[in-house]
Amino acid sequence: MTKDMKFEQALGDLEELVKSLENGQLPLEDAIQAFEKGVALKTVCEDKLKQAQLKIEKVMSKNGKVDITPFEA
Q1: Which among 3, 4, 9, 64 counts the fewest CB atoms within 10 Å?
Q2: Contact, 62 vs 38, CB < 8 A?
Q3: Cα–Cα distance between 18 and 31 in angstroms, integer?
Q4: Domain range annotation of the chain
Q5: 34, 58 Cβ separation under 8 angstroms
Q6: What integer pLDDT is reported at residue 71 of this predicted model?
């Protein structure tokens, strides 16, 4: 389920889970399930970002060499 998600959807779901956990109103079992789902969503987000980084590095390659310049926001 989560592996097929787009980055934006996974991040949005993760943000909602964090809000519900921070609220502190979830029963223990629900909080544990939310935490586990959050960990899975975090992994999806990290994987999607890594894939994007690799694509950007590939596009930026020159003459067969990759000129890696750290992205600064």
Answers
A1: 64
A2: no
A3: 10
A4: 2-59
A5: no
A6: 62
- How far is CA 31 from each of CA 13, 21, 24, 34, 52, rounded to the nearest angstrom? 15, 6, 9, 5, 31
* CA dist list (Å): 13 to 3, 42, 52, 58, 70: 13, 10, 20, 29, 28
60 vs 73: CA distance, rounded Å:
17
pTM for this structure? Answer: 0.75
Q: pLDDT, tens digit, for every residue of 5-43?
A: 999 999 999 999 999 999 999 999 999 999 999 999 999
**According to the model, what pLDDT value does residue 6 have?**
94
- Supply φ then ψ for residue 31, to 5 degrees: -65, -40
User: What is the C-alpha to C-alpha distance for residues 34 and 24, in angstroms, rounded to an integer?
Assistant: 12
For 2-59, CATH number?
1.10.287.1040
Cβ-based neighbours of 18, under 8 Å, separated by 6 or more = 38
